[in-house]
TrEMBL record:
Keywords: Endonuclease, Hydrolase, Nuclease. It comes from Thiohalocapsa marina. Residues 1-22 are annotated as: Disordered. This is Type I restriction endonuclease subunit M. Residues 1-12 have a biased composition (Basic and acidic residues).
Length: 85
């Protein structure tokens, strides 16, 4: 199954007693909070430069930066693919 945003809740754990090499399992919020130094505060993920909406670049600039990043990533994937052939 390919996990996409619309079907992520259908995902089944792959780690269990019968599959110790599995790589994924869900944790209950309560289980996470019982751990030492546990924090579900995701504030650190916020990009400080994006908090001041008045200083954001124009949408066209953001779009061009995103496109440049995507083009660069695609070129990297194509290089890897070419080296495998």
């Amino acid at each position: 199954m390919v996990v996409r945003p619309e079907n992520r809740h259908e995902r089944q754990p792959t780690l269990g007693e019968d599959t110790p090499d599995g790589r994924w399992r869900a944790y209950a919020r309560e289980d996470l909070l019982q751990r030492d130094k546990a924090s579900l505060d995701l504030f650190w993920l916020r990009d400080a430069s994006m908090t001041d909406l008045d200083s954001l670049p124009a949408p066209e600039v953001l779009v061009e930066e995103i496109l440049d990043n995507l083009r660069s990533a695609l070129a990297s994937f194509e290089a890897v693919s070419a080296s495998d052939q």
